[in-house]
Amino acid sequence: MLVEIRNLRIQFPTATGLSEAVRNVSLTLGQEKLGIVGESGSGKSLTARSILRLLPPNAIVTADKLTFDNIDVMRADEIALRRVRGARAGLILQDPKFSLNPVMTAGAQIAEAWRAHRGGGRKLAEQAAIDLLAQVQIRDPKHVARAYPHELSGGMGQRVMIAMMLAPDPELLIADEPTSALDATVQAEILRLIEDLVSRRGMGLILISHDLPLVSHFCDRVAVMYAGRVVEELAAEELLRARHPYTRGLLECLPTLSHRQKRLAVMQRDPSWLES
Amino acid sequence: MIEIDGLCVRFGGLEAVKSVSFSVVRGESFGLVGESGSGKSTVLRALSGLNLNWTGRMSVDGQVLAPRRSKDFHRRVQMVFQDPYGSLHPRQTVDRLLSEPLQVHGMDNIERRIMRGLNEVALPATVRFRYPHQLSGGQRQRVAIARALMAEPQVLLLDEPTSALDVSVQAEVLNLLMDLQQAHGLTYILVSHNLAVVAHLCDRIGVMQAGELVELLSADDLRGGRTHHPHTASLRELSIELEEPETSL
Asked: What residues in B contact A39, CB-CB < 8 Å?
């Protein structure tokens, strides 16, 4: 078992008391691909980030159990966490424009990640960076290694970010909306690349997104979150048989190419979804 | 309403838009689709007057456009941008954001127009004195739409108006845009990389690739797969593949 979360709660202090961002979430993840889907503010990113304890400092976190490969993340010290963060669990963020260092070349950034986790000389790390760029299917890795982030397209930047995360050879990859800033064609390419790398290296994957049909293509299992709760968890191929009205609503409000719609269905939110 | 003939836009050595021509009749919705960098937003920016460096011929409502536009043009043609987080002034209240276009164009009844504007985009009157950061993404995009409508335009240029929004909020904003078009007889040009969104809102669609308009077709032809250019076909195929949930075989 790679990750176990039982009864995770994340709260934030506000002027009017505690606001509950994540309420009693329980998830387990093995060597598989799990999608977490929900709207902005549903707590999907916080849940995934809690595995690395990368939460804002004012967050109040409680959990009956929160482990990564039997390491108790709640009680681990910073030194132990440093051996997990990046090294054993990588995090891919949404927008390469903001997540890459603008004054370092792509190659230097990947080499830095390589050396930080694996040691070794500069020459060796530079060669490793070019290898990694080739692995994320960049046609001219030597050229891209010398380029600065502003010289790269969005899709290329995201590939560089993935290469950087692969450098320490992690067991788990957390991809937090990795393609929301990209257009449909590039989006599909990047997700196929992630899926392929995850299967080939035998990693676990947590893919966070607000696009339910998209996630179902690239994951084995999907957890649907609403207002800090997991309201439904189902196998990706069972999506069309989803029972929870929120999951159904997410599917029905999408415009589609297959037939003409006069109006789009609008989500009718039921206060009872907040209970249970 | 809008005629574009042989529009070219250059950025240094790069030809971003290569001789694009199309026309949009009054009250119609026209969609432009294509990948990032295909030049679809550049067409919109040249038309709106944000980019002065273009050649070709463009006219709106019979008036031929020069690079510099009159004040009246900027009243009649309004633009809504992709990111409501970036397109609203962070230190201006909704009230100020909405009253500015009215003051610029010397319009009267500011009080009543603001209340009507908020009402039209289904925002409660309580948001009037809030700042953008106090609103949700969907509410901000509604404010951006309300601001564009303040000066009573005839044409709305929409640059990826829903791609920064959740799918449930996207549905609400698309329904709102449809209602507003019917109520005011607006002409829309919608730019997006999401084929399903464009086909939902628009009757006719132009497909762009590497600065060229490679195909013009109706939304029904796109749905039915009656495409002529291979790029249109591949965009359509990908869109359909990804939009259907995975089903067990």
From this structure: 166-169
Contacts of B3 (CB under 8 A, 6+ apart): B23, B57, B58, B59, B60
Residue B139 belongs to some domain of the structure: yes
Question: Which position has the token pair 């951006």?
Answer: B144
- DSSP string covering A123-151: HHHHHHHHHHHHHTT-S-HHHHHT--GGG
Per-residue model confidence as pLDDT tens digits over A70-106: 999 999 999 999 889 988 999 998 888 788 999 999 9
Question: How is residue A69 written in tokens?
Answer: 């490969």
> Residue B83 pLDDT > 90, yes or no?
no
- What is the extent of the structural domain holding B99? 2-23+40-217
Interface residue B199 vs chain A (CB under 8 A): yes
Minimal C-alpha gap between B73 and chain A (Å): 31
Letter string b/e over residues A96-107, b meaning 16 or more CB atoms within 10 A of that residue's CB: beebbeeeebbb
B37: chain A residues, CB-CB within 8 Å: 153
Domain count, chain B: 1
**Mean pLDDT (whole number) for B20-31:** 95
- State whether B220 and A260 contact (CB < 8 Å): yes
Q: Does B236 touch chain A (CB under 8 A)?
A: yes
pLDDT at B164: 81
B144's tokens: 């951006």
Closest CA to A204 of A177, A173, A236, A161: A173
pTM for the model: 0.86
C-alpha to C-alpha distance for B25 and B3, rounded to whole angstroms: 9
Out of B37, B166, B195, closest to residue A40 by CB: B166
Is B244 within the bounds of a domain? no
Comparing C-alpha atoms, which of A101, A2, A13 is closest to residue A52? A2
The whole-number average pLDDT for the span A151-173 is 91
Mean pLDDT confidence for B96-103: 94
Q: What angle do the packed helices A154-166 and A106-118 form, to 10 degrees?
A: 20
**B186 inside domain:** yes
Contact A264 B200 (CB under 8 A): yes
Whichever domain contains B8, its CATH number is: 3.40.50.300
**With contact defined as beta carbons under 8 Å apart, do A111 and A125 qualify?**
yes
The ipTM (two decimal places) reads 0.81
Q: What is the spatial distance between Cα A85 and Cα B205, in angstroms, rounded to a whole number?
A: 47
> Do B174 and A154 make contact, defined as CB atoms within 8 angstroms?
no
Question: Smallest Cβ distance to B244: which of A182, A213, A238?
Answer: A213
